[in-house]
């Protein structure tokens, strides 16, 4: 896949233009987006991402198109998982709803910048050291394990890093609208607004460690890695307000992502064996034993895993809700167990 510097510059310029438009059109004036507004823009950005993937398939071939779609699905799922942590941070710092858009917007821009740096670093390492795939694969297997055993147990808003930030920087406990700093009695303090942004920026840095190796397990093309990440982050702000209530119901998303990360980790190790041509000997004949997992299988596996995790999550939360409020129907009338207890 040959991408000229002009194409790179145009892609980066268009990406920046979208975020600038987002800020001036939606974020600059503090408000809480309506469900209709969030749904409209979420559909727009997802449709744009899908059309871009079709464009890659038509122009560069469907092998690259498949890599883009697999990467986009993986990054989108990881981004949605990130929203859990964003929601936790927002709650910990008690960010008013009308100011949450600004925090999310700045956090998303920080995430894209950090991922851009990791993408460039990853491309350089892959181009010069083929054995780096072993490291990426091992890292993803470790992250998959941690995703299962420690998901939701930590509080990034009150972790060691944020404790250090509070010790180093003068912090004011009250919000001053959406300002990042405030001057009190001649001394400059940072507001909880800036503290929240710092927390989200730190979390974005941590997330980049699983996000970039994961997508490099699906494609070697830096252009596909960047565009898949950019489209996954676009519309994430609107998605936060659209599915905020649904996030708590996706109880198996962490396990689903762990399966995806483990699968890509295994795929990376096999790819490393294939690239480094590690054979085994059978009767004096050297035979390559590290097959490549085709991208179409990766795409189907990732899609199926996300669907199973989502359906299983919704089914479980529905069952749990039924247990908490059991009902029965008599003569077309719904009778709640709690109502019966009161009568008795």
Task: Describe the structure in your own words.
- The chain is 72% helix and 7% strand.
- It has 344 residues and is mainly alpha-helical.
- It has one domain.
- The strands form three sheets. A two-stranded antiparallel ribbon has the order 1-2. Strands 3-4 form a two-stranded antiparallel sheet.
- Strand 5 and strand 6 form a beta hairpin.
- The longest helix has 32 residues.
- The model has no long low-confidence stretch (mean pLDDT 79).
Describe the main β-sheet briefly: 2 strands, antiparallel
Q: For the residues shown, what is the average pLDDT?
A: 79
Q: How many domains?
A: 1
Q: Which series of helices and strands comes N to C?
A: HHHHHHEEHHHHHEEHEEH
Annotation field: number of helices: 13
How are strands sequenced across the largest beta sheet? 1-2
- Indicate the proportion of strand residues: 5-15%
Beginning-to-end CA distance, first to last residue: 73 Å
Helix content: over 70%
Q: What class do helices, strands and sheet pairing give?
A: mainly alpha
How many beta strands in the DSSP annotation? Answer: 6
Whole-number radius of gyration?
23 Å
Low-pLDDT stretches are none
Tell me the overall shape: globular
Give the SSE map.
Blueprint: H1 5-27, H2 35-60, H3 62-92, H4 97-128, H5 132-149, H6 160-168, E1 181-184, E2 187-190, H7 192-216, H8 222-233, H9 236-242, H10 244-247, H11 253-275, E3 279-282, E4 285-288, H12 295-324, E5 327-330, E6 333-336, H13 337-343
Antiparallel strand pairs: 1-2, 3-4, 5-6
Helix pairs in contact: 1-4, 2-3, 2-9, 3-7, 3-8, 3-11, 3-12, 4-7, 4-8, 5-7, 5-11, 6-7, 7-11, 11-12
């Amino acid at each position: 896949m040959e991408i000229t510097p002009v194409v790179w510059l145009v892609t980066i310029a268009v990406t920046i233009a979208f975020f600038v438009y987002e800020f001036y059109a939606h974020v600059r004036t503090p408000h809480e987006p309506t469900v209709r507004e969030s749904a409209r823009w979420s559909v727009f950005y997802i449709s744009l991402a899908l059309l871009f993937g079709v464009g890659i398939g038509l122009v560069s071939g469907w092998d690259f198109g498949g890599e883009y779609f697999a990467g986009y699905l993986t990054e989108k799922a990881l981004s949605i998982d990130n929203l859990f942590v964003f929601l936790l941070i927002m709650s910990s710092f008690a960010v008013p709803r009308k100011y949450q858009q600004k925090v999310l917007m700045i956090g998303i821009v920080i995430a894209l910048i950090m991922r851009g740096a990791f993408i460039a670093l990853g491309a350089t390492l892959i181009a010069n050291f083929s054995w780096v795939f072993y490291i990426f694969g091992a890292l993803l297997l470790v992250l998959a394990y941690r995703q299962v055993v420690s998901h939701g147990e930590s509080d990034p808003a009150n972790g060691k890093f944020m404790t250090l930030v509070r010790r180093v920087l003068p912090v004011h406990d009250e919000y001053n609208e959406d300002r990042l700093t405030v001057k009190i009695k001649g001394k400059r303090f940072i507001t909880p607004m800036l503290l929240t942004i710092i927390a989200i920026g730190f979390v974005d840095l941590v997330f980049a460690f699983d996000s970039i190796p994961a997508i490099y397990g699906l494609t070697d093309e830096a252009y596909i890695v960047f565009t898949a990440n950019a489209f996954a982050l676009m519309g994430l702000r609107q998605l936060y307000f659209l599915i905020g209530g649904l996030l708590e119901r996706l109880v198996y998303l962490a396990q689903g992502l762990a399966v995806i990360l483990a699968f890509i980790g295994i795929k990376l190790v096999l790819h490393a064996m294939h690239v480094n041509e590690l054979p085994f000997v059978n009767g004096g004949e050297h035979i390559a034993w590290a097959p490549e997992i085709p991208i179409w299988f990766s795409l189907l596996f990732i899609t199926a895993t996300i669907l199973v995790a989502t359906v299983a999550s919704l089914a479980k939360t529905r069952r749990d809700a039924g247990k908490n409020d059991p009902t029965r129907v008599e003569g077309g009338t719904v009778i709640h167990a709690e109502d019966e207890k009161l009568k008795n």
